[in-house]
Design brief:
The chain has 274 residues and is α/β, with parallel strands linked by helices. The protein has two domains: 34-109, 60s Ribosomal Protein L30, Chain: A, CATH 3.30.1330; 116-272, SPOUT methyltransferase, trefoil knot domain (Alpha/beta knot), CATH 3.40.1280. 37% of the residues lie in helices and 20% in strands. The chain is built from ten helices and eleven strands. It has helices at residues 10-31, 40-48, 61-70, 87-94, 116-119, 137-149, 167-173, 188-197, 235-238, 258-272, and strands at residues 34-38, 54-59, 81-84, 104-109, 127-132, 154-158, 182-185, 200-205, 211-212, 221-227, 243-246. Strands 7-6-5-10-8-11-9 form a seven-stranded parallel β-sheet, sandwiched between helices. β6, α7 and β7 form a beta-alpha-beta unit. α6 runs parallel beside α7 (167-173) and α6 (137-149) packs parallel to α10.
Length: 274
């Protein structure tokens, strides 16, 4: 029996080893389930949420005292690994994002994923916000904060467009990531189609809409569909809207920031449904 041996040059072997190590590194990174958030409200609300697993908290001495002052009747730091750092030491976690941490950093895991189909079973008078091609983490975070403040039942967003580990989004949401139901879907169009079949009305917000949104009789189950500031709702998604509505405003102003527009709509719906 004859054996054939393949002898790789040293440079080739080094190259193979290099890519193997790189691949192992990438796999490790992909399998990592935890991430960092920053900011007082984001960290404290994560600590208070029994459904959220907080692995570690990095605090300054002052921020630790502040947590105890704000939560005198409960020890939110119980069973959590705490590391005390200087402000300068904490800066390294947020310098890339140019974010103010205020002395609060936490390493957390994702919440359990919610299933939209199960959530809507046997429920009526639901109102969801739905984002089409909105990707800016600050805008999404601010919108989540407003939606939670004005009792919107949840946010529907395409998983690929959702910055689920963004410090900027968590900071902008100011703790409301822990209070709003967020439904990640693979396809917005098919989701809207399915919800319409389950007696949901879809309202697309567009500055060229047929009527002002305050003239709508907001009854039953509703989807509030918002597009990106630059391009609005995509044409192939627009066709799933039952109505296109607008926010009446000064004609000299071209448009509002999406999080501001959403806040106006959420506040109005919260007011009329009281």
């Amino acid at each position: 029996m004859r054996f054939i041996y393949f002898i790789y040059p040293i440079a080739t072997r080094d190259l193979i080893g290099k890519y193997s190590k790189k691949r192992v590194k990438m796999v490790k990174k992909m399998n990592k389930s935890s991430f960092f958030i920053a900011g007082q409200h984001a960290v404290i609300e994560a600590l208070k949420n029994p459904k959220r697993k907080v692995l570690r908290v990095f605090l300054t001495e002052e921020s630790k005292k502040n947590i105890h002052r704000k939560n005198p009747n409960s020890n939110v730091l119980k069973d959590v690994k705490i590391y005390y750092k200087t402000k300068k030491e904490l800066d390294k976690y947020t310098s890339k994002d140019q974010l103010m941490h205020g002395g609060y950093i936490a390493e957390i895991e994702h919440l359990e994923r919610l299933d939209l189909k199960n959530f809507i079973k046997n429920k009526n008078n639901l109102t969801f916000a739905c984002l089409n091609e909105v990707t800016d983490p600050r805008n999404i975070g601010s919108l989540i904060r407003s939606a939670s403040s004005f009792h919107i039942d949840g946010l529907i967003v395409k998983e690929r467009h959702f910055p689920s580990e963004s410090k900027l989004m968590y900071k902008s949401a100011s703790g409301c990531m822990e209070h709003l139901n967020i439904f990640l879907v693979s396809n917005i169009n098919s989701t809207l189609k399915n919800l319409r079949e389950k007696n949901f009305w879809v309202y697309g917000f567009d500055n060229k809409g047929d009527k002002d949104f305050t003239s709508i009789n907001w009854q039953g189950n509703n989807i509030l569909l918002f597009g990106s500031e630059g391009f609005g709702i995509k044409r192939h998604t627009n066709k799933y809207a039952d109505y296109l509505v607008k926010i009446n405003m000064n004609e000299k102003v071209d448009s509002l920031n999406i999080s501001n527009s959403a806040a106006i709509v959420f506040h109005h719906l919260n007011f009329i449904k009281k």
